[in-house]
Design goal:
Oligomer: homodimer
CATH topology of one domain in chain A: Isopropylmalate Dehydrogenase
Largest sheet of chain A: 11 strands, mixed
Strand order of the largest sheet of chain A: 3-2-1-4-11-10-5-6-9-7-8
Number of strands of chain A: 11
Structural class of chain A: alpha/beta
CATH superfamily of one domain in chain A: Isopropylmalate Dehydrogenase
Radius of gyration of chain A: 21 Å
CATH class of one domain in chain A: Alpha Beta
CATH architecture of one domain in chain A: 3-Layer(aba) Sandwich
Distance between the termini of chain A: 42 Å
Shape of chain A: globular
Chain lengths: ~325, ~325
Amino acid sequence: MRIALDAMGGDRAPREQIRGALLAVREFEDLEVSLVGVAEVIEPELRLAGSHPRISVVPAGPAIAMEVAMTMLHNANADAVVSAGNTGAVMASAFFYVGRIRGIERPALALVLPYNAGRVLLIDVGANTDCRPSHLMQFAQMGSAYSEKVIGVRNPRVGLLNVGEEAGKGNELAAEAHERIKECGVNFIGNVEGTEVHKGIADVVVTDGFTGNIALKVGEGIADYLLLTLKGVIKSSPLFIGAALLLKPALKRALQRLQYEEYGGANLLGVNGVVVIAHGRSDAIAIKNALKVARQAAKSGLIETMRQSFARATEATQAAGT
Amino acid sequence: MRIALDAMGGDRAPREQIRGALLAVREFEDLEVSLVGVAEVIEPELRLAGSHPRISVVPAGPAIAMEVAMTMLHNANADAVVSAGNTGAVMASAFFYVGRIRGIERPALALVLPYNAGRVLLIDVGANTDCRPSHLMQFAQMGSAYSEKVIGVRNPRVGLLNVGEEAGKGNELAAEAHERIKECGVNFIGNVEGTEVHKGIADVVVTDGFTGNIALKVGEGIADYLLLTLKGVIKSSPLFIGAALLLKPALKRALQRLQYEEYGGANLLGVNGVVVIAHGRSDAIAIKNALKVARQAAKSGLIETMRQSFARATEATQAAGT
């Protein structure tokens, strides 16, 4: 199992990328990581951080590290790609060098949110700002395949993010997508409201990339806001400070599940290989978790399953059309 | 100052409506509340809760309380209406009995979010699921007028909820709305991402009713989730329980700002009178806060200001068209 890691992409590259790779190979014995990027920059940093027999360096100019990593995936010299580079640039480079799975109209970004009630896959969190109902239908199918193959959920419950529970609710896109998803072969449980996402009533929550991105970032903002507010309140009294010190590990545990470092990056589903996009601000822990997510997807056989099922769907459509 | 309160609308009506009205008239000496609904149900409850000279009962059948309240507003027998009834039904009844301000294409729901950094008006939180760029432009104008007249912000900063900071980002609607808002006479600061809403960088955040509703409810869900998670973690150790007891007032203060009871209801901006829609689950405190919001808007002269400015804009458009 080899993952090509774009060592140049992200606000804190290459240092945190290198440290994250080291954490990952120490945690997973079957994992090899190729650090793709400027060798003159990576190698001294790697020596400082402590090199490892399962970490190698693949030289590439700073502007083309992402492309080199994608080409490795395309040529089967890597089983997955991880990048914390600009999301739009990673997607464009994946489309160009890796290509789409036949039958997929639009690849989408899927993020696993680790709530107490279970892991919820939100798809699309930002790849497609304008969608048609057929796109959302395919997001439902891809999300369901991921939940089943990678997370291990049997017969995943798929919900549509919407402003009300009843069919027909929402904007035109959501109302039409509801009808399409109902008929597309996934275990559709209907609409899911914003207040319900974290409750684990659906294993997969489908939405367009505009709404999904706003939902994700508002959630992130509210979690940050609460943490900051809490800190401010605690500092207002010495009694509170004492209590907070005792409570700190508990507070930390409660909040860390909502922080991007723990998510491990979003899967770009629908391209012809495993591509994971980590947050631009990723630190070593976030990179390690992104490598973990990529490793799970690559091990699961998800891509082969999706290739087969979308090829069948495409053939059925073509047969019906003739 | 008289507010007509729909005493029959909401999950906990009429009891919490009556108790909320009592709290409000005790807090505001200039306030009279007309409880609109079934007299036989309201009067005994009111006697139990403690009647008040500035609270009266306006009899109306259970199915028409909302309509009677709207008619009072239309006939200037009330300065504002508050209802915790079904949002769609309240809006339909306001459109029919109160009507739109001339020049407004689509009334919108505006909610004041009381963050530490300042009060942020989010518009639209659910009235219009499908919008055109011109609608979002008018939301910007109405939101700006509200922020200035009711909240007292000078030259309010208006932002557009979007997935990136640069103009041109987002779905077609957001990209086009950006251009329209830039030219419409408000103090436009550009796009605001989901992570930024609570930071108070904009006094008014504009979005379509689908995205706004999802954003609001995801925020509500995440706050609930954090509170529950925290409670669970605290219970896991006696040491934590002790610390948490000390910290409870601080925790409560931090969280209550994110709870709907404190918001006081959403303003239906663009109809020809002050209409405030409270959360269906409203308790007495939430109803009191909704009455407070309605009182502020009615006192501010907002409706008259909006009538004049949209009439001028309509005349200018018509003059340009001839």
